Each structure stands twice: as C-alpha cells, then as structure tokens.
Amino acid sequence: MDARLSPDQLRGTGKLPILPQAAALCYRIQRGQPEVLLITTRRARRWSIPKGWLIGGLTTAQTAAQEAWEEAGVVGHCNADRLGQFCYLKHRTERGSALCLVDVFPLQVQSLVSSYPEKGERKRKWYSPEKAALKVASPDLAEMLRSFGPYPH
C-alpha cells in the first residue's frame, strides 16, 4: 500500500480497515537547535515516534502524551494542534492487517524519567530532525521530521 496516498484515497480502497492512532513528536532545544526523540518499535526494532490506539476519555493530543510517557518516559507539554498525519500498515496476527492513520502532535519534552512502563521493551535516542528523517520507515513521517520547527507553548 502506498503510504503517500491521501487519507480520502485510502478510505476509498475498501481493502483494509483504517484505524486511528495518535503519536507524539517529542522534541527539545539543544544549543538553539531542535532535537527529536525516536524510539524503537517492540517487535521489528525500527525507529519511530511514540504512538498508539486512541484512549477512551482522552483527546487525541492527550493520548499522544500518554503514549510518549508509556513508551519513552517523556514528561512534557503536548500541543493540541495537530502537526500532521502519516499512514502505516499494521500486521495483526489474530485480526488481520489494518492501515493505521496516525495524527501527530508536537510535544515539548521537559524531562525523561529513567523508569517507565515500556522501558525494557524499547530504546530511545535523540536525533536532529534531518537525521531522524533518515531513520524512520514512513515517507510521510520523514517529511514531517525534515520540515519540523519547534512550536511555542
């Protein structure tokens, strides 16, 4: 499936269920320049950003912040304005594959804690946005990283 198709085009295919997710593009400013935090996925160990299924009772931005905490130990302020979207194919053993449409929110990191729920399952590392763009699999996420500029909170 072409990850560069628009969400409307993807919905029209009818071949795969399209499921919403939320993600946090976690960033900090070091020596006047932004850095973004990437984490590894649990199974494939590919670099990505914290993301997950929507959580009942939370907004999409709040879900993104919760995922950043669980997956990377991030404490910070998540902007409620969506930065962008990307799609990826999720292989689910029991329910079949699905196309995930991920809303991305910028999250300014105030601190990283050493103990968090998924600490033993993932690695985390800071990169310049340009280097981070080279590490991720999604072309749309890579473009978002390349064009990223810090957001005022």
Q: What is the element layout, followed by pairings?
A:
Layout: H1 7-13, E1 18-30, E2 33-40, E3 47-48, E4 51-53, H2 60-72, E5 74-78, E6 84-90, E7 98-112, E8 124-127, H3 129-135, H4 139-146
Parallel strand pairs: 1-7
Antiparallel strand pairs: 1-2, 1-4, 2-3, 2-8, 5-7, 6-7
Helix pairs in contact: 3-4
Outline: globular
Radius of gyration: 15 Å
CATH topology: the name is Nucleoside Triphosphate Pyrophosphohydrolase
> What is the name of the CATH class?
Alpha Beta
CATH superfamily: Nucleoside Triphosphate Pyrophosphohydrolase
| Number of E strands | 8
Span between termini = 36 Å
The count of domains is 1
- How much of the sequence lies in strands comes to 35-45%
Major sheet size, sense and barrel closure: 8 strands, mixed
Average pLDDT over all residues: 89
Residue ranges: pLDDT <50 for 5 or more in a row? none
Structural class computed from helices and strand pairing: alpha+beta
CATH architecture label name? Alpha-Beta Complex
SSE string: HEEEEHEEEEHH
Annotation field: number of helices: 4
Range of helix content: 10-25%
Domain Nudix hydrolase: 19-149
Keywords: Hydrolase, Magnesium, Metal-binding
Cofactor: Mg(2+)
GO molecular function, one term: hydrolase activity
Structure commentary:
This is NUDIX hydrolase. InterPro entries: DDP-like_NUDIX, NUDIX_hydrolase-like_dom_sf, NUDIX_hydrolase_dom. One of its GO terms (molecular function) is hydrolase activity. The protein is of the alpha+beta class. The chain has one domain: Nucleoside Triphosphate Pyrophosphohydrolase (Alpha-Beta Complex). 23% of the residues lie in helices and 37% in strands. The protein contains 4 helices and 8 strands; from the N terminus they run H-E-E-E-E-H-E-E-E-E-H-H. Strands 1, 2, 3, 4, 5, 6, 7 and 8 form an 8-stranded mixed β-sheet that branches. A hairpin with a 2-residue loop joins strand 1 and strand 2 (33-40). Helix 3 runs antiparallel to helix 4 (139-146). The protein starts with 6 loop residues before the first helix and ends in a 7-residue tail after the last helix.
